[in-house]
Design brief:
Blueprint lengths: L4 H36 L3 H20 L5 H16 L3
Helix pairs in contact: 1-2, 2-3
Length: about 90
């Protein structure tokens, strides 16, 4: 454990940010899983709705600095390709 006051604060701040980032990543992963489930079930309507929600969550995470913009673009692109492959 740190003895210096500023070091103690940095530990608390780092933990707070870690928890926040973990929660945001969890939301994104859940949204992605919903899209994947809809694609697996060949349900185009549900997949499109889930894709819109997942895209929104990923963009929010990117704006908060949780994901790099290229990572977000890659995730969104892969989801869109999967949804568009549904006949």
């Amino acid at each position: 454990m740190a003895n210096i006051k500023s070091a103690k604060k940095r530990i608390l701040v780092a933990q707070t940010r870690t928890d926040r980032n973990k929660a945001i990543r969890s939301k994104v992963k859940t949204a992605i899983k919903k899209v994947d489930a809809a694609v697996a079930a060949n349900d185009k309507e549900t997949a499109l709705a889930a894709l819109a929600n997942a895209t929104s969550e990923i963009n929010k995470a990117t704006s908060k600095g949780v994901y790099h913009k290229n990572t977000a673009a890659r995730k969104i692109s892969r989801l869109a390709v999967a949804v568009n492959k549904i006949a």
